[in-house]
Amino acid sequence: MNNLTIVEARKKLDNKEVSSLELTQYFLGEIKKKNDHLNAFITISEKEALSMAEQADEKLKNGDSTPLLGIPLALKDIYMTKGVRTTAASKVLESYIPQYDGTAVMLLKKAGAVILGKTNLDAWAHGSSGENSDFGPTKNPYNTEYVPGGSSSGSPVAVASEMALAASGTDTGGSIRLPASFCNVVGLKPTYGRVSRYGVIAMASSLDSIGHFTKTVEDNALYLQVTAGKYTMDATSPPIDVPNYTQNLSQGVKGLKIGVPKEYFIDGLDPRIKNMIDKTLKWYEDQGAEIIEISLPHTSYAIEVYYIIQTAEVSSNLARYDGIRFGNTRASFGPEAKRRIMLGTYVLSAGYYDAFYKKAMQVRTLLKNDFEEAFKKVDVMITPASPTLPWKLGEKTSDPLSMYLSDILTVHANLVGIPGLSVPIGFLEGLPVGMQILGPHFSEEKLYQVGYAFEQSHPFWKERPKNE
After folding, report:
1. pLDDT tens for residues 225-269?
2. According to the model, what pLDDT value does residue 112 have?
């Protein structure tokens, strides 16, 4: 079972080499062995998972075969799951058990996937390191003294350390792409609305995207095939057809125009990471792609714009958790949630709304225009996913501004609603490094094509952690 992908597991299940029940028991065993050390899961749904696996095996016996049938997955503990607690990693919701499944969960269940449990995160998805969880920090499986990235910290750790074949996350400013980069897995933030947000606890509603982590690009495409689409319970879910995401995977990159935005190669970028990106771009050029330097002039404003809009929406969304309807009336928000509520309330208050929030929304439009102009010249863009390597646990917890700046290369995609894919490109000091591939709205198929080409020649995903 070691280093199994969804594609390989699918073949084994279809050929009756293994049952879904056996697969599920294997992963539950791995969780029991490793979770105390890595703290990737908040809730393990053993009973429910075994029941789902048995149902999947019945369907397999009847000749059914869909991409995720019988495949054991994990969900960031911000997805509503009927009958299984959903905490958002906050003690406020420690005992909250939803009465319904979110749309993405419903679709995964309909596809026959097996849900192993709910993974750890920064409480309310507020953070870039996984350290803001009320249930303790998740640890990076490649070196447990380091962070795995956040806010979707438990999901990539579960995939990287063989505790699940794939996992769902959310990305509001980089919360899938950053931890994917830090944990040597593939992570997709889809186009805004491509996957329904219904039944996922909102952080910042105009920025939240529902995506996922896998070991390989092809696995990621198979996962999105199940969750993408138009759903009536989410008004931001557009009526745009879902393509076959695996159809063009192996077409290569010859003739593609790859943009390199000069503003992303900032002073704070680790020169070793820049060197790795340069080598990656050279490889693409050798395969027949055209590398074009481009400019996104308003890039430097993005992080400020993001933290104005995001905190404003956070303060609005968290107002509903007053302890009356949900969970624990004695628990309170942690320091990071309080910080964001106060910042958001401030920028929305009388006398400051025009100076901060309204101006931020105007600059957001300028950023959107920058990307639209750039995508007239190039098919995709390639940038670093993070300006730095993973940092040590505790290193930035007393410096919120430094923590916020870790998203400086990822927030743009959320502000303008475009998709972004993080793909492993190697290691520095034993820690993973990823690249970010950005494309126009609804270009996930193209991002997968570009990422797959590199991955086939550079299968860094096969280098699994040795000391989890």
Report:
1. 999 999 989 999 999 999 999 999 999 999 999 999 999 998 889
2. 98
Set 45, 90, 133, 151: catalytic member: 151
pTM: 0.96
Catalytic residue at 59? no
Instruction: Give a yes or no: residue 467 inside a domain.
Output: no
Quote the Cα angle for 155-421-419, to 5°: 110
Q: With respect to residue 403, please indicate whether it lies within any of the assigned structural domains.
A: yes
User: How much is the pLDDT for 324?
Assistant: 61
Percent residues over pLDDT 70 in the chain: 97
Structural domains in the chain (count): 1
| Residue 292 belongs to a domain | yes
Q: Quick check: is 113 in a domain?
A: yes
**Range(s) of the domain holding residue 274:** 6-462
76 an active-site residue? yes
Q: Which of 76, 139, 396, 446 is catalytic?
A: 76
Structural Rg of the chain based on CA atoms: 21
What's 35's domain CATH number?
A: 3.90.1300.10
19, 175, 181, 209: which one is catalytic? 175
- 89-101 as b/e, with b when 16 or more CB fall inside 10 Å? bbbbbbebebeeb
CA 41 to mean position of chain CA atoms: 16
Active site residue 45: no
